[in-house]
Each structure stands twice: as C-alpha cells, then as structure tokens.
Specification:
By secondary structure, the chain is of the alpha+beta class. The chain has helices at 2-15, 22-35, 45-57, 61-71, 80-92, 117-127, 139-153, 259-262, 268-277, 298-305, and strands at 41-43, 94-95, 99-110, 130-134, 173-183, 195-200, 206-223, 234-240, 246-252, 279-288, 290-297, 330-339, 364-366, 371-377, 383-389. It has 2 domains: 18-183 and 292-338, Antithrombin, subunit I, domain 2 (Antithrombin, Chain I, domain 2), CATH 3.30.497; 191-290 and 339-399, Alpha-1-antitrypsin, domain 1 (Roll). One 2-acetamido-2-deoxy-beta-D-glucopyranose is lined by residues 149, 152. Residues 1-17 form the signal peptide.
C-alpha cells in the first residue's frame, strides 16, 4: 500500500547516509594525476576518509581543523562525522558470495606510550579499528607484523605494504589503511567472447590486450562539457555488480582524444550529474581485462590538499595519548583492483563476434584507449575506488591461445 511505500521510503532515507567526501576524492585524484605521468591510477577515497577520521578522533586544534576542512565535514556539527563514517562503512561493508568489501584500518603505536582509554573506546565504537603497540626500533619485525596483518585482511592481495626502511628509531605512530573488494558483475562477460585486441595508449603506441565483450542492459549516457575542453562528447557507462548496490562507472573520451583532456573537467558535481543522468538501455561493451595496483604516499598527497599539521612536530594528537611529541610520520595506501569476465579462467571462443562498427544497433562503448573509472556505492554515493587505466593487461604476441581478430 501507499503507506507502506512511504514508510519504506523514510526507512531507506534514514538507513543510507550520504557520503559527502566526493569533493575530497576528486581533489585527491587530481593530485595523483599531476604526479602520475602516463601511469595507471588506483586509490580508495572512502578508505582514506576513514583513516583520516581515525586520526581526527585523536586530534585537537589545527590538526583537527585541517582534517575537517579538507574532508568537507565543516557543515556538520563537531563530531557528527564519526557517526557518518561509521554508518557509511557499515552500509558499504559486505561479505557474501557475490560481493566482499572489507576495510583494514589500524594504528600502530610505539610501545611504552599509552593511548587514552577514551580514544581507544571511540576507535572501537566508530571504526572497529585495531590499535596495537609495536617496537619501531625493531623495524624489520614491525614491517613484517604490519604486512601480515594487512595481507590477512585483504585475502593476500596487498602484500609488502611497508618495509623496514619505512621505520626509524624515532617513529612513534603509523597509520595503516587497506581495503579489499571483490564483486561479481550483474551481467558477466562470457570468457569465450574475449579476444586479443589492440589498445591505443595516449602516447600513440599500441599494446595487445584481452578485450572482453558483451551486449547487455547497463546504464549509459553521452555527455559534453560544452566548451570542447574535454574533446567534445564522451561516454559514461555504469555497470552494476551483483546486488546492484555497487557499480563501476567507466568514463571514456572519444578515440582520438587523450584522457588528459578529459581529466581536468572531473569535479564532484559532475560525478553526480553522471550518476543521475545515465539511462538504462542495451549497450555493446568492449572492456579490456585489467589489473591495477598502486602504492600511494598519502603524506605528500594530503599535504598538497591542506592536511599538513598532523605530519609536523606541531601536531596536536593530544586526544590520542598524553605524549606531547607525537605526529604522523608515514601514511601510505596500497590499492589493488582486478577486473575480469568474472573469475572464469581462459576459455576461448572461435571468432564469432563481429568487431565492426558498421552495423551498430545499440550504443557501443569501445574501451580500446585510456579511460577513467569509479567504483561506487549507488545508495550512499561512497567512492570505493577511483582511478584510470592508461595500460590494461598487456599480452605478448606469442603467448596467445587467443585468436586475433
Ligand atoms: C548513523 O546511524 C544511526 C543509527 O541509524 C543514526 O542514529 C545516526 O543519526 C546516523 N548518523 C549520521 C551522521 O547519519
Ligand atoms: C586473519 O583474519 C581473520 C579474520 O579477520 C582472523 O580471525 C585471524 O585471526 C587473522 N589471522 C592472523 C594471523 O592475523
């Protein structure tokens, strides 16, 4: 009935908090883009936000103010952001046959320094976070301990996050941040439709890649920024994962337009515009298999965005411990993403797919050149991953069991 529907609406509204950190996410992307040359990019904005929330919980004064300002929490009453982050991670976390999303956040503190009990209590309450003490002077042992913790939290996808050289006898505190995601496409690609295919990189060179293919119902739209700055019309394709909560959005410029022309126009409101304007329809999709992995020095990126104080000797982390000289020396994130047909191994078909543009019945998204992508939660608008593929999975000409077209 109508009343039931209304109740359901209200219930949905309250149960899915809206992520407000997309501005921060996009600014961080632009930082990485400027530093990234022609490389692939992958990072997890949500995971960085959660890690910074953990630090903010222990911060005061300028240390706290910079985090709130940069993450876009200033419009919230003080402290509400912790509840928001808690609700967001709860809404996004998942662990079933189709979809696994797991956060691994932890603070490692030098032995002999005690955390304030109230801080520990709030860390558990809001972040279910682990806080552990280690002896940083035993740098190799600490690196191993932290790495195996991360490895365990990420089904072994993230290895060697830190090395002994990352620590010194003056290290007091290390923030560790990792995230694991595994999802099945709602519409899976059939492995027998995968072919070797040329991918044109933005530097003009070509590599051979494994191109997946399917025709299916997706969310699709064509956009233009009007000014021609982005090279005119570009395509946005949203492909849901099983369960439809999570999806991958692929943003593809025209073939002759380098991704670097499109990147500057990417802004937080534009992400919303894409999400709100893609329409469900049949689309022909050519998407390369890809695997992207990146270790990011969050310290320099965050400093570039205005979070500076926590990394200096002026840091005020007095809500964390009573120690006066505590600051964050190191903050790294390592992210990994592998996109495949859906786990199915190397079965190969025999050239039945017509790769021709002459008889196009549906919009065709041909990702045979660099593209931007986002993996997001469609209910909370949280961005789990953001990145770009400049080079997909490259195959050597002589290791093909795959027929060239
Ligand atoms: C988080 O969820 C709880 C329980 O549903 C709710 O009381 C609280 O207001 C939410 N916080 C935010 C910031 O949305
Ligand atoms: C690995 O993680 C699981 C579940 O998160 C936990 O039960 C187990 O104790 C962990 N093992 C190690 C070696 O940390």
């Amino acid at each position: 009935s109508y009343h039931f529907f209304l109740l359901w609406l209200i219930f949905s509204y309250y149960s899915f908090p809206l992520d407000t950190t997309s501005e921060f996410s996009v600014r961080l992307y632009h930082q990485l883009q400027v530093a990234g040359g022609q490389d692939n990019i992958i990072f997890s904005p949500l995971s960085v936000a959660v890690a910074l929330g953990m630090v903010e919980l222990g911060a005061r004064g300028a240390s706290l103010a910079e985090i709130r300002q940069t993450l876009g929490f200033n419009h919230l009453l003080p402290g509400v952001e912790f509840s928001l982050l808690q609700n967001l991670t709860a809404a996004v976390s998942n662990d079933d046959a189709h979809c696994v999303i797991r956060f691994a956040n932890s603070l490692f503190l030098q032995e002999g320094i005690a955390f304030n009990p109230e801080f520990l209590h709030l860390m558990r309450k809001y972040f279910r976070a682990q806080v552990e003490t280690v002896d940083f002077s035993q740098s190799a042992a600490v690196a191993e301990q932290i790495n195996s913790w991360v490895e365990n939290q990420t089904e072994s996808k993230i290895r060697e996050l830190l090395s002994a050289e990352d620590f010194s006898s003056v290290t007091r505190l290390t923030l560790v941040n990792a995230i694991y995601f595994r999802g099945s496409w709602k519409n899976q690609f059939r492995p027998e439709n995968t072919r070797t295919f040329s991918f044109s990189k933005d530097d003009g060179s070509e590599v051979q890649t494994l191109m997946m293919y399917q025709q299916g119902d997706f969310y699709y739209g064509e956009f233009s920024d009007g000014s021609q700055e982005a090279g005119g019309v570009y395509q946005v394709l949203e492909m849901p994962y099983e369960g439809e909560d999570m999806s991958m959005m692929i943003v593809l410029p025209r073939q002759e337009v380098p991704l670097a022309s499109l990147e500057p126009i990417i802004k937080a409101p534009l992400l919303e515009e894409w999400a709100n304007n893609v329409k469900r329809q049949k689309v022909e999709v050519y998407l390369p298999r890809f695997k992207v992995e990146q270790k990011i020095d969050l310290k320099s990126s965050l400093q570039g965005l205005g979070i500076k104080n926590i990394f200096t000797s002026d840091a005020d982390l007095s809500a964390m411990t009573d120690g006066k000289d505590l600051y964050i020396e190191k903050a790294v994130q390592k992210a990994y993403l592998e996109v495949t047909e859906e786990g199915a191994e190397g079965a190969v078909g025999s050239g039945m797919i017509a790769l021709t543009r002459t008889l196009v019945l549906y919009p065709q998204v041909m990702a045979d050149h660099p593209f931007f992508f986002i993996i997001r939660n469609r209910r909370t608008a949280s961005i789990l991953f953001m990145g770009r593929v400049m080079t997909p999975e490259v195959i050597e000409p002589n290791d093909h069991d795959f027929d060239s077209i």
